[in-house]
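WARN no homologs supplied; continuing
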Amino acid sequence: MIDALRRLSLNQKTTNSLTLPEAVDVCRRAQLESIGVWREAVADFGLERSARLLRDAGLRVSSLCRGGFLTALDPDEAGAAFADNVSAIREAAELGAQCLVMVVGGLPPGSKDLSGARRRVSDAIDALAPVAAEYGVRLALEPMHPIFTADRGVLATLAQTLDIAERYPAEQVGVAVDTFHVWWDPSLEAQIARARGRIFCFQICDWITPLPPDALLSRGMVGDGHIDVRRIFDLVCQAGYDGDVEVEIFNADVWAANADAVVATMKARYRECVVEASVCASS
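OK structure emitted
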């Protein structure tokens, strides 16, 4: 149980109003050993200063969010996206992030060509994978719940995502498994097993109903919704994943609450709803 508890990571989005230094201070007070950081917060504080801050705090960087948005039709927009992703790779290397999470992007404005968008994602990863390998950065492709296919992620299942990732060495391109996005998938058990060696990031939260007007903000604290988070935790552990477990919550009420109280609840729910019920908590 001790090992599992030490794997808990605060994804910055869970305390969305905090600067990077403030989020680091919250982690220190909560005795967390890991944090998932966002590029915007790093840019606000400065890349070199951020890297130094995280090193001095002794925090592992469980992920850098995010790269991606690779579906543009316009050549100039596609070129800009490639350049931005190269920058993200360099940032991940400087921060020592365990992976760069890739939200691949939705349909371009006015387009209904879903197959074409998925092909462009595949082509973009072809171009980015060698750059990531040069910097020693692992790309974690994130499948997203189908409600976000149009605007955020044209890869909706782990199967689709692994079809791309498996074209590359297992140490270079893998997947991010986020309970919010994959819990509904009837082939989840088989696809997580298939992902052995390619699970670079594991993020947890709960699915709450009724959905708010902005579905993006429908994530809840573990234990408040419909997802069997413990079961998915066991599946990823049984697939060989022994990395950090990020809590990533997009929720207006959580964001408005006191950050220390949020993290205290996050820790308690992780212990009660995941670790204490798990068959492989010491993995």
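The CA atoms of residues 71 and 120 lie 6 Å apart.
OK
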